[in-house]
Amino acid sequence: MTPGGPGGRPTTDPAMDPVDTAVEVLRAGGLVGLPTETVYGLAADAANEIAVRRIFAVKGRPADHPLIVHVAEAADLDHWARSVPPSAAALADACWPGPLTLLVPKADHVLSVVTGGRDTVGVRVPAHPLATAVLTRFGGGVAAPSANRFGQVSPTTAAHVRDDLGADVDFVLDGGPCPIGVESTIVDCTVDPPQILRPGGIASEQIEALLAAASGLDSRARLAPADGPRRASGMLASHYAPRARVELAASPAAADARASELAAAGLAVDVLDPTRDVVAAAQQLYVWLRDADDRGLDVVVAVLPAAVGLGHAIRDRLTKAAGLG
Ligand code: TXA
Ligand code: MG
User: Do 315 and 302 meet the contact criterion of CB atoms below 8 Å apart?
Assistant: First the structure.
């Protein structure tokens, strides 16, 4: 890689090991499409303010929406946190590497561009061999939101990232399709009891059980209230949205009936039913929503799965996609 391509962007050498290329692009202040077990991230050196600002510019993301810092291993949490609450230590110990983001009080050196001016920072250790390799060789923290334009469907393949961001991303590391397919669960450990701000790849029931075991009490993580100043940006309505209108249905039968009605009215419509296998449905969810647009559907009628396991995350994303967050 050479440090300055056209417009001051890093340029990449196709003969180089892709992980080394990703690391060099990060060191040069560039942006990398980074595979994780949840979704692809748009990664930049979390200690480089100019690089982090470029993430916001490329995504079209409001500056007050904080970014998650990705690190190689749980021991790195100490570097990013001013202090590590016992709940965070317990959850990190049990769930990392994995699809869990912990909000902790931020250390002084953490850039406010990363935290959106907040006094907390979100940290996670992703469980994807290529992400681990990049983070280990890079040595620092990597700020990365999902690698989609703001408000749109998250990418779960390298091709999604290239399609969405084109030349705005300096290098995309292809790690294949993301195995989980929905974003990490976010737990705010700066409040007592901790709160789940976004359901995700680790089930709420598991978080609750781990917290209860750690505290030795029957304390339960509460789901965040539907609104309030502390909610995560993913809690905004009309997130994760395809161009097609998304309607929600309570059962497969209700979805089929509604789809027939819409089809009779001349609309291109299909039913999305994640209820049979929520794990497979989560993995395919964003692929399916993107395909809906490629197929030119006017309406997607989506069945809400039961609120258990990955069903929490799927319900959340579908509800946001329907603009009803
Ligand atoms: O699985 C994931 O979490 C993926 C992969 C790439 O790691 N990342 C991801 O990032 O989903 P993003 O930026 O699309 O969503 C992160 C969410 C946002 O809603 C953001 O507002 C919230 O986390 N967040 C991050 N730091 C926060 C903080 N200090 N306080 C409150 N919310 C925070
Ligand atoms: Mg996102």
Answer: no
pLDDT digits (tens, 9 = 90+) for 221-240: 444 443 344 455 545 555 67
pTM of the model: 0.93
- Gap between the Cα atoms of 142 and 192, Å rounded: 28
Q: Is 12 in the pocket of ligand 1 (CB under 6 A)?
A: no
The sign one gets for the Cα dihedral 200, 193, 86, 103 is: positive
Q: What is the pLDDT of residues 159-179, one digit of tens each?
A: 999 999 999 999 999 999 999
User: CA-CA distance, 138 to 135, in Å (whole number)?
Assistant: 5
* 93's tokens: 């110990």
Q: Which residue has the tokens 């490329």?
A: 58
Show Cβ contacts of residue 49 under 8 Å, excluding neighbours closer than 6 positions.
Answer: 111, 113
d(CA 243, CA 249): 19
Q: What DSSP string runs through 188-201?
A: ETTSSS-EEEE--S
Give 265 Cα–ligand 2 centroid separation in angstroms. 34
Which residue's CA is the closest to the ligand 1 atom numbered 7? 41
Contact 30, 4 (CB under 8 A): no
